[in-house]
Amino acid sequence: xxxxxxxxxxxxxxxxxxxxxxxxxxxxxxxxxxxxxxxxxxxxxxxxxxxxxxxxxxxxxxxxxxxxxxxxxxxxxxxxxxxxxxxxxxxxxxxxxxxxxxxxxxxxxxxxxxxxxxxxxxxxxxxxxxxxxxxxxxxxxxxxxxxxxxxxxxxxxxxxxxxxxxxxxxxxxxxxxxxxxxxxxxxxxxxxxxxxxxxxxxxxxxxxxxxxxxxxxxxxxxxxxxxxxxxxxxxxxxxxxxxxxxxxxxxxxxx
Length: 255
Fold this sequence. Notes:
By secondary structure, the protein is an all-alpha fold. The chain is 75% helix and 0% strand. Among the domains are: 106 residues, Orthogonal Bundle (Helix Hairpins), CATH 1.10.287.1080; 68 residues, MazG-like (Helix Hairpins). The N terminus is likely disordered.
């Protein structure tokens, strides 16, 4: 099915040398005899926040269209990939080689219209083929893979909570699962706000977290009714808060 002649030629020596140098540096940092105490103390789990942070910094750099910043932030994210692979290799789970081989095989497998003989007429057919292949990889039928609950569950597992909620609400609404009117949502907001305030009077943290989640979810629902992007809105509020804090700090320094 695949055609090796269509696969791009081997990377040039300078690229391979650069990647190999980075791998050697990470290996040295993790060396028990000559390494860095901080790097040696890290585990796959302790590095999770850095993976998320670096991914967001890449996004910020891309939005800024600053090529120098993009290069730097992509490098930081690449470091996290290599660090995770290095730790896994030390624990004899898998290596960077297996990571690279795995994604290469997946790309070839999921692009039969490029590396195989499948013909497609448009991007929609490409998307449909992609979903069918994904379902086959997970031993699912295309019908099962397309269940709304499966799709929403993947969002909840793989996306930051705010982004996941936004996508869940959009997908649910497109499938007909939404409030009839915005007034109904406002009534639900009042109800959830009251339940959250009541939960704060108790000492049940689990209940408080549940009610807080319900309140935040209904606020996101309201935002979607008015066509507002909650992530953008919160980011703008964060920015304004930081700007005001900066003004206060400047005033304090001058007094």
